[in-house]
Fold:
Amino acid sequence: MVKVGDRLLGYATDPDVRSRGASGGLVTAVLAAALEKGLVEGVVVLKRMDEYEAIPVITDDVQEVLASGGSMHAVPVNLAKHAVGRKIAMPGKPCDVRGVIEQAKRNGVDLESTYIVGLNCGGTMHPVVTREMLVRMYEIDPEDVSGEEIEKGKLIFRTKDGEEKAIPIDDLEEAGYGRRENCRYCTVKIPTSADLACGNWGVIGELAGNATFCEVMNEKGKRLLDNAIEAGFVDVRPADEKAIAIREKVNSAMLSLGSEWKEKVFTEMPDQERLSYYMEQFADCIHCGACKEVCPVCTCGEDSKCTMFHSLADNYRMSMYHMVRLLHLSDSCIGCGQCSDVCPVDIPVTSIFRRFADPAQKKRNYEPGMDLTRPPFLEVMLK
Amino acid sequence: MKESIYTSVCPGCSIGCGLYIREDDRGAVSIDFLKSSPVNRGKLCRFGMRLPHYYSTPATGKVEGLGSGTEDAVRAAASRLRGAEKVAMLSVGNTTCEEHIAFMKLAESLGTVVHTGIPVYAELPPECHPHLEGMPFTDIENAEKIVLFIDPYVQYPLLVRRLLAAKRNGAHITSAGTTELHLAHENRKLSPEQYAELDLDGNSVIITDIHPHTDPCHIRQLLNVVLDTGARLHVVKPFVNSEGVDRLAKGRAGTMGISQIMDGIEKGDIRTLVLLDSDPVELMPDTDRAVEVLKKLDNLIVISSRDSLVNAIADVVIATEHLYRKRGTLINAEGKLQENSGQGVDGIDAMSMLSRQLGADGFDHRQMHGYLHERMIDTLASENRKPEYCRMECGTVPAQQNGACTLEYVYNPFMWFSQPDDNDFVLLDRSMVKSLGLKKGGTVRLDSEKGSMNMRYRVEKVPEGTILTGRKLPIATGTVTKIRTEGC
Amino acid sequence: MTDKEWEPKIVAFCCNWCSYGGADTAGMGRFQQPSSLRIIRVMCSGRIDPMHVLNAFLEGADAVLVTGCHIGDCHYVNGNYKAEVRYRFLEEMVRELGLEPERLQLNWISASEGEKFANFVRDVTAQIRQLGPSPLKPEGVN
Structure:
């Protein structure tokens, strides 16, 4: 029996799952066990299409869960909306987890019946950019790639004939490749708001590459892990001091790099220029609504203020859609970058939203998606 | 909790945006973003975002108004086609290459050709068609000078990001279309004589589109500019596989534009019309008129995946599966061959059955796919096959009469596929709004010879006297309709 | 319009119980008031959605005033408190947008404070006249 707060090293007992998973297959095994033992009705898995493409699907087939797994840095999706209205377990990067928590705050998700296994994340890459990067920077044919990992600040690609090539992520990003912009300045690398916080940071020595560091964050996390251990799907052992220290070191190194990026991306803009910048950017908007559709924190559904009070017939300088989105996201934006990804006219939507959200959230010392104790601050609380 | 995922292409236009279609266990359809698609990075426009609606009305098989299975429908179609004379067949490119090839086989056994409905193709000599093939979108991003004859925001939104990228790379963008474009450096209405002023060269790109109502004269003039200056022409097309069906068309002799087909029906030169995922009612600017004309046919046979307007008046409807479920390939405006992940072959099987009943050979998907590859090798082998002798004379386009207002269609996917959309307004020039004394939130009254209606409006910088619409209006008599409104 | 001096358009949201009464009192007291004001009466300042304010700007308002009963005097107990929380938030957003802070102002005015209301509107009008038309004003709107 594990306890809340435990920091463990674990791996899947099934050798096949253990070798295929990114680091010991712990997450895959925990999710499979949750399904097998009826803790949940389904599991969100990333169905792999190829090295650069996967799509989240919900399955109730344990075998399909076990067959999934493997890290996919070039698949930037957000899973939060798949949890809506379902009793499922899901893996999640910090932004997936934060999305689910924000959904729960607005009664979109019932956290009691949703289990989230969080994964440490240093950032994701855009698949099209990744392919281009492989050709230009790595001189590798994207079709020859058999796997990829991030280690000690380097992005490593393995080819099918067993060769490896590593380039420091800093160099890649200098050249305009590497992680998506929002990932570079992301402020949450370890998903402490998930039920379990897992990752390979802190896994060293003989276990490196085939075990996962796992922190039990709450009662649900304990239930998940106990269930997997009882079912015989995973083995765990306590992590030693050294492992814990290394994990913390990686995290803080990532965070300080993130704050450097933040300064680079969010340059000061004089008051007069800001408005014309925003108007100029939004003037290309074709009002497809995709940024709202993908937004993991939006719970409004079809009849929302941003769409119902907006009309294509208006000839405003900025539309009501933009205004209401800016307003609503100021308190809840988690900077996941999905909106920029799907914008058909390449408006840097995420960085614009962050320009509003960042100061507002900082002023109120409010970090969305981290816990349920504080409601969204636009919600008026009466003393 | 079982979900089926299909990798497919958006049927909105010939850009060919990749996307996922998700079907849940209750059959509900939703879209998801295929971010690894090099065409669109998974990004979708307003039409793409509303595909669940587009896919919500599957076609149902029908014989003379009564529901029927595929076999009965095919039998009924065969008995109507046997010995039928004056047969015309239309496929504009709303389906896969393989289905289109099957349709061409069917045409062969009926002793006729498949029309693609675009008059430019019909009027231009076949050897000039390579000029009308698209080019890689990345070439647009690298152009130094771009001239637009389309409104990318409304018509082909996924081109906007390419144009913005070009702008960031230093391109100069001129819009020669009707609306003022935010992304353009320069917006000017140009007459063909003024094209020389644009000072184009080999690093310039002219972007225009051809659709069933494009004036062939406009394309001829642009072709001449291209030949004079060395500029490249990028032609966007309105249907997902427009590029494919044109490349597949053999010889192209005797093909007709959709208006010619409608005229042919009216004159009695066409007595039987077979349609493959092409709806003249949707494609013609005047819906009522199109229905009236089509009713004159002896036989109207529809092979379709969607329950569109023409199905209601068809004698026989052979229903096939939705595009995203079809097995097959599509060619986008860049000339890129994209494959569906679906495995459905209902369409080809039905046409094969029909072919056999007409006494010809049957065929299957594999054969059709093989034929496609042969044809593609054919076309690719003749790279640089853009002959110089396509220079053409063209009469002058009649100048707009002063003092008259015109209602003009801005064709976009919502218009072609009569999908509900929230652009239920017309675009008016500010001076017209002022002179009519219109109030915000009010409507403008439009009178044509067909009737009158009130429409909401939006103020936009459009040429004086021009009223633009992004949706089909019942008072329209053509792509351009004369409007009598006070102040005109 | 060109020959006349430009007159700003100011939208004031007034609550039914206090600030609207204040505006009324200002009128009855015959305090000189600029013609720039458009009053929108709401039952309570708590009803003012930030969206209403943003919409006013997009429609061409040069300034928007949010007014209500003094804190503690709300007819509905705490509506003005809610209005203030939202206002503080909106204030930040308007500033981030790059609009001058003078274009959005809050004031608590009771039904008897006619003079205060009139002075407030006059001051704001003077400030806005200095600033000129709002950059968010749609083209063609005065």
Summary: The radius of gyration of chain C is 15 Å. The interface with chain B takes residues 139-140 of chain C (CB under 8 Å). The mean pLDDT of chain C is 92.
